[in-house]
Design goal:
Helices cover 24% and strands 31% of the residues. It has 14 helices and 28 strands. Strands 14, 15, 16, 17, 18, 19, 20, 23, 26, 27 and 28 form an 11-stranded antiparallel beta sheet that branches. Strands 1-2-3-4 form a 4-stranded antiparallel beta sheet, with helices on one face. It is elongated, with a radius of gyration of 27 Å.
Length: 588
Amino acid sequence: MEETDPRLESSVWVGSKRYRAVLTGWHFNWTEVDKTNRDKTTISVPVAEVFGVEEGRVEILPHKSIEDTDKDFTVFYVKRSSSGNSSGLLWRLGRTQFSCLSRVLRDQWTKHLRTALKTHSPVRPNRLLVFINPFGGKKKGRKIYHSLVAPLFELAGISSHVVVTERANQARDHLLKKDLTGFDGVVCVGGDGMFSEILHGLIGRTQQEAGLCENDPTVTLQPCPLHIGIIPAGSTDCVCYATVGVIDPVTSALHIIIGDSQPLDVCSVHHASALVRYSVSLLGYGFYGDVLAESEKHRWMGPVRYDYSGTMVYLSNRSYAGVVQYLPADPLLSSPRDKTRCLSGCSVCSQSTERLFSHSSDPGSLYSSQFRQFSSDSEGEWVRVEGRFRCVSLTCMSCSCPKSPLGLSPSAHLADGTGDLILVWDTHPLGFLKFLYRHTCTEDQFDLPFVEVHRVKAVRFSLSPDEEEGACEEFGGSGVGLDEEERSYIETVSRSGSQQHLAECGTGRETANKQKAASPFSCGLCCSKAPAVSVWNCDGEILTATEILCRVHGQLVRLYARGIEDGAAVHNCARGNEKCERGYTLYE
């Protein structure tokens, strides 16, 4: 029998029932056998989802206890259940206690199961650096970690060094300056803000050690060697929801324990030859920037401030002039309108991995071929549009959340090296309300005449020449208090064709302008004068810069996740579908 493919089969007992247990290289199965030796119910668990094997009868709640019996062993594994309104599946701790005919047989089972774990799950973490934000969300970060997560880490044999943060950016600074030798990954217990700190710290540390300049947007950044785990405990957990499908600390902890690995694209944001921030979810100008800025005035309201601010900003009926330039991605690979979803095992992301990693065995140059188009030699490939926008958004993921199950861009991918640019032109308030409403249901929010979406690799945003001159002045965004000339300008918005290239602009050639009629309608409730420019909402943080350059870096970091699991596929697999290659375990 080869150590690399252990196989064992025998009768075992679970309680008073007899089972036939079989261990192959990839699965551990046990099938109930009735008195006439006929097979009944079978439970199949992938070896990759077994995360603990202990001699004796083991309990872990409320505290770990072991009843050391000679003929018994306990197996811990992943079990799944539906998660109600969430798009993913809940993971729970499965535990089964087996009894054997002899101690020798018991020892054979524990030895072979542990060998199988080492063979087929070689990248599981052994030591983790954990940051806990005690102030985020409902201030339950400490309790969530110590009561739900730490016992699971202990059961799986994972040691952890815990840092409870006391100030903003403490986690980022720790990762930039402290010795990280011996750690397999970094775990954040908090929300999107804490994740952003970890993201900036790890990317910055990696580029420092590689001798790369983050401020140069043309530089190919080095992928981070350490994985990031997210234990959701914040007021917003967008990244966790979009990569796991549920906001549940136990589910996230189990993904970390079994060493799941989900690559993630990261967008670098630059202004005036300097790095401003990194973004993985939403980079939004106009409506989304205004909502964030308005919500900062009402922090005393708690999470409800976002709903209140969204309503007030919508009623203010604002739009902003700007110039958007973008570098299109290859339309033959994927499209933001192709109705596909980035789920666990996504073929688009897998093909992108092969494309990104096939050019060189040198990790420092894995992405060099991806951004050749980013150089000045290919300015003609950039596309330019100009006009007035309700919002301009760039996202590297679907941005799904409980209130928007499909997200801002339902077909966006986590790891294909691209982002989705969403342009919402100035329109009647009721039209914009329809656009916002469609985020909460299954209707296509892009199937509107004033909405465009493009899959891109880079984006530039700048103010229109007229706006640059008057950016410090304020005007009524809703049309109230404007003279006839200004009102006429808002009522007839000029936008350049979406296929106008920068090369054509350089030679003086222009495509015909399309006319978009803007509504003179004013809500009458929020008619105070709006600023001439908006702000950028970068993953929940306000950017002070207006004119920015964004570049998408393919698979720059890796999370302890596997993407959102397809519930229907998992149910079919769990019920013994012959075409299924993975034996999932479900419970109701």
